[in-house]
TrEMBL record:
Domain Retrotransposon Copia-like N-terminal span(s) in chain numbering: 43-90
Name of the protein in question: Retrotransposon Copia-like N-terminal domain-containing protein
Pfam families reported for this sequence: Retrotran_gag_3
Signal peptide: none
Ranges where the record places region Disordered: 1-27
InterPro entries in alphabetical order: Copia-like_N (IPR029472)
Species this protein is from: Vitis vinifera (Grape)
């Protein structure tokens, strides 16, 4: 249904304006965010305060156990590709750049929520969930770690 309540099949890819940023989101981008099999899909229960694991990474606890639990939770939420680097940031002009950024920020928040404050302070300003994951891997690498 088109804006104003009229049916119009020619507007499937008409741009919508994002109410928060004023940027343009097309109908096809919208369908990416609504497809539950797409890594850009965010469930209504997904929010920045979501806790994926019960135990925080402190540096002294078992990194292998913590990383395994995080990887399982991210995979269950179809967001593993944001941390393993297989879904890299699109160029700024790409129509999915804003969607990628929103999902990347959500995944980054989820990671930060699972890490002690002492460690968070050192990674807070990294640009992506993948950069956070790579930094953690570098600092806490053990055999079988990510």
């Amino acid at each position: 249904m088109a804006r104003g309540g009229q049916h119009n099949n020619d507007n499937r890819f008409q741009p919508l304006t994002s109410p928060t940023s004023g940027s343009t989101i097309t109908q096809s981008d919208q369908s990416l965010m609504e497809n539950t099999n797409n890594p850009f899909f965010l469930h209504s229960g997904d929010h920045p305060g979501l806790v994926l694991v019960l135990h925080l990474l402190t540096g002294s606890n078992a990194k292998n156990t913590w990383s395994r639990a995080i990887l399982m939770a991210l995979n269950a939420n179809n967001k593993l590709r944001f941390v393993d680097g297989t879904l890299s940031q699109p160029i700024t002009d790409d129509p999915t750049a804003e969607i990628w950024s929103r999902c990347n920020n959500m995944v980054t928040f989820w990671l930060l929520n699972a890490i002690s404050k002492e460690i968070v302070d050192s990674i807070l300003y990294l640009e992506s969930a993948h950069a956070v994951w790579a930094d953690l891997h570098e600092h806490f690498h053990q055999s079988n770690a990510p």
